[in-house]
Amino acid sequence: MKKISLIIQSILIFVVLISLVSCKSSSIPESELDVFMNAFQKHSPKPYSGTLLVYQSGETIYQQSFGYADIENNIKITNDHLFPVGSITKMITATGIMLLQEQGLLNIDDSINDYFDDEFFDPSLKIRHLLSHATEFNRDSLFKGLSDVSTQEHLSHLTTVNKNKKATDSFKYSNANYILLAIIIERVTNKPYAQFIDDEIFKPLNMNHSYVGMDEKTLTNQVLGYRISNPQPSKLTMYNLSNVIGSGNIIMSSNDLLNFVLSLKNETLLSAQSIQQMMS
Question: How far is CA 15 from CA 23, 45, 102, in A?
C-alpha cells in the first residue's frame, strides 16, 4: 500500500538473519556480533529497534533485542516480543497452498477460475502466477483502514479492478495476488484462512507464539509501531489486518519465525519437491 509504505515503522522492523550453513563453516563469535551491534547502536543516527537472531551450523549463536516495544510506558523489546512480520506472511500463505497441493485438493497449474462460480478472471491466470507475482493485477486490494474487509468484499473488488488482466512473463509485486490465494484457501478447505494456517502450519511446527491478525487490536506482548520524528517518535495507529489477509497479517516471535524457516530447510512440513517448486 503506497500510503503505508511511506510510513517508517522502525519499531515494527523485525530482522531475523538466518545463516543456514554447513557444520564445516566457521562460526561468528558472539563477542564480534556484540561489538558490531554496540558500535551500531552508539553511532547510528537511527539505532536499530527489534530483535536480531543469527542461526548458524544448527544452533542459535546470537539473539538480542534492542529498542522499545512501548516508548510511553518505557517497555523494552525482549526476545519474546511479538512483531507484525508484514510480507513474510506471503511465505506462509504459499506454504499453505503447497500443503493443499500435496493433499490433492488443488494444483498450482489450475486456472484460478476453477475455484469460483463464474469466469471472474482471464483464463490464462493460474495459481502458479499468483504465487510468483506474475500477473497484471493492481498492487493492492480493497483497503479500509481501521474497518474490517471481508473476503467477499476483497473478491468483489478484485474481480472488478482486475477483470481483464492477464498472466505475465515479468515480475510485478502485488499484495492482491496473495489476498486472492487466501480466498482460494478458504474456498478449498471451507475454513477461515486464520484457522487453516493455525491448524496446518502453526500447530504442527509448535509455533505457539504466532497469530493471524484479522482486526486492528494489539496483542499482549506485541510491539507498538512508531513514526520516526523529532523531537520524539509518534505512535502509529494499527490498521485492520483483514485489509491484508494472506499478504501481510501475521504476527509472531523471532523464535517462531526461525522454526518456520527451519521447517523448509529440514523438509518437516513440505516435501522436497514442493519446496523446490516454491524456490523455482
Answer: 24, 18, 31
Q: How many CB atoms lie within 10 A of CB 219?
A: 12
Place of cell 490498521: 239
What span, in angstroms and rounded, lies between the C-alpha atoms of 227 and 93? 28
| 280/262 Cα distance (integer angstroms) | 19
Single out the residue of 190, 116, 105 nearest to residue 155, CA to CA. Answer: 116
CA gap 198, 210 in Å, rounded:
8
pLDDT at 39: 94
All 3 cell numbers of residue 204? 504442527
Question: Which residue bears the cell 515480475?
Answer: 171
Q: What is the pTM of this model?
A: 0.89
The residue behind cell 478472471 is 121
C-alpha 53/C-alpha 28 separation (Å) is 13
- 132 has pLDDT over 80: yes
Cα–Cα distance, 278 to 137 (Å, whole number) = 20
Grid cell locating 37 = 551491534
Q: Measure the CA–CA gap between 67 and 37, rounded to whole angstroms.
A: 12
Inter-residue contact 250 to 219 (CB < 8 Å): no
With a CB cutoff of 8 Å and minimum separation 6, the contacts of 28 are 19, 54, 56, 61, 62
Q: With beta carbons less than 8 A apart as the criterion, state whether 46 and 11 touch.
A: no
Query: Is the bond preceding residue 123 a cis peptide, omega within 30 degrees?
Result: no
pLDDT attached to residue 26: 58
- Within 10 Å of residue 156's Cβ, how many Cβ atoms? 14
